[in-house]
Fold:
Amino acid sequence: MRSSVFLSAEGEGFVPPSSNDFELPPIFGDNPFTTKPIFLVFLSVILVSVFFILSSRKAAIVPSKFQFAGESIYAFVRNDLARDVIGHEFMRFVPYLFTLFTFILTNNIFGIVPFLQFPTMSRVSFPYVLAITVYLVFHYVGIRKQGAWKYFKEIMFMPGVPKAAYILITPLELLTFLLVRPLTLSLRLFANMFAGHLLLLVFILGGEHLLQGVIGLKLISPFAFFIGIVLTFFEFMVQCLQAYIFTLLAALYIAGALADEH
Amino acid sequence: MEGTLNLVGFGLAAIGPGIATGLIFAAYINGVARQPEARSVLQPIAFLGFALAEALALFGLVLAFVL
Amino acid sequence: MATRDDNAAWSIIGYLLSGLLFWGGVGWGLDKWLGTTFLLLTGLILGAGSGIYLVWLRFGRE
Structure:
């Protein structure tokens, strides 16, 4: 799988990176539960917990730099995401949104951390699970708040529409609400991480391959590496942005389920 | 290299809606910047134009898979 | 308010996509069942039309 890329440097012609590069072999024997993404998920859980436990344990009025870093991330999620979007009931959802944001952010940034260098969310099952949790949370909240019948009636039957148009529209509302929303939520995160990692692979491995070539190609390869480095910074921006967008949309869905009229 | 011509066709078909979306939001931002109180008037128009342009892109996407 | 606008753009894409998928899917299924070929295109156009109509209802009315 990965070997195809490394073999290419030995004069077989360049094999461009493909989706096969994302299917990493198990680390211990044949156990499919010990692949790199799984270790990265556990690592991210440990990192996030240790960071926030340490930064909040010795909380002082005059914060240390460490405490300040932890608190500013928390304040960002609480004020800019939860409070501005959800409104007066926001405090209930802050723990969930905060977990979501830090977890996705850490896992995304693994994509450009040396030696880890694999964004966990580029395996599609992880975003799926996250989107399923969002899905369960916002439907549960909406049904608890408004009652099942009223909740679905407001989705399905919009006021002020001719009766005949409901035949056209109601299936679309239901499909959007029940299927397309969580699907686009997870696929957006997945596609961004997948494409970003592939882009970096193309430039870094392509530059490496050019370095093995004749002298003319050797001269070009620094440009490939340079673009690879620039794109790494670009990737960092995309990774932060995607974590933010995922959390923002989760908050917006919760806010929509809580709102009386939608 | 593998793939189908459908995907090339979709890539070409996505150029138009891409430019259109850019133009629509450029005009919207321009309008709101010049006259902030016109925002509520411009916003539905901008989103409708966006929807019309985006429908063409999604048409291309669906047809690329179907045909 | 900027966040609401972001959500509007995404949900517009969602509505249009589900319109095309649902009514295109209905047309495709009817094509398979009846052995015709024109219903898929009809369904796609109907889906795009109703998707745009729904976007107009949600975002264009006020």
In short: Chain B has a mean pLDDT of 88. DSSP finds two helices and no strands in chain B.
